[in-house]
């Protein structure tokens, strides 16, 4: 990894260079009831609209590489036959600007499943290959527990990572393209005092985390507590709305439907992200639903993230961003659920 520092004022030039491609970054979308700003990822045309000092976005950036809805293929009836067309939906290079470490680590996890498995997903792969990722440091929020999940810093999965140090940016460089980009702005190698300043800043940040999850022996505890009444209690609270999966940067479950136009001239196969908490998630042919109760669905969401994925990839599928707890109308949070399973009571 290479390091550079550049003055804050050079961010304008960096943005201009990146703006040759489509930029998606954190923008302000309004305020909550307490007057605190709400942020989300969106296309950014003007540096003034970019809020690199954002707290947390409501949704992750996954819609840009794992859309909520996409056509897998379309068929048109021409010349007495069906013509199939596949469009990966990649039209222009994309810059994801300002991803926090948790969201970069979420991408790394998705890569393992969607690119590294036996059946790589070409739709995802094409979009990932078309992305330039610029990370940005963050200030831990009261609901962030990424430190517990080991995802509070990123060492791969980005091209460039920026940390604000007063009137300077400390840049971590992982790709030749990122180095080439920085060579076009006024930057230099950091000296030893800047190394120290950066390390002190990292140390201070580590002390700011307040939310924690005890993950020690968690897979074993989940196995032991599979029949725990705690799951019934969380199931009674859960509204089965699926919001948690929509905002989650690592949820990738989906459903596929096939549809035909009324005049049989066109048909298409549509993929839609889904949530394992939705009532019909486990509905199969013959109207059988093998997870009709909400407590079984919420339980399996946790077992996928913290049990099955660990067994398959030796890491959890949760990055501790806290978005699901923030978005949940029933106020169900990962730290509380895990703590209750460990304690055997809510
Ligand atoms: S957001 Fe909350 S209420 Fe809705 S499905 Fe998820 S856990 Fe249940
Ligand atoms: S489960 Fe919740 S805390 Fe974990 S990655 Fe998903 S949204 Fe973030």
Q: Can you offer a commentary on this structure?
A:
The protein has 346 residues and is of the alpha+beta class. The chain has 2 domains: 2-206, no CATH class; 218-343, no CATH class. Helix content is 32%, strand content 23%. The chain contains 12 helices and 13 strands. A 7-stranded mixed sheet has the order 1-9-8-7-6-2-3, sandwiched between helices. A 4-stranded antiparallel sheet has the order 5-4-11-10, with no helix packed on it. Helix 7 packs antiparallel against helix 10 and helix 8 crosses helix 10 (294-313). The longest helix is centred in the last third of the chain and has 20 residues, at 294-313. It is globular. The model has no long low-confidence stretch (mean pLDDT 95). The structure holds iron/sulfur cluster (2 copies). The site of one iron/sulfur cluster (SF4) has 13 residues, from helix 11. One iron/sulfur cluster binds next to helix 9.
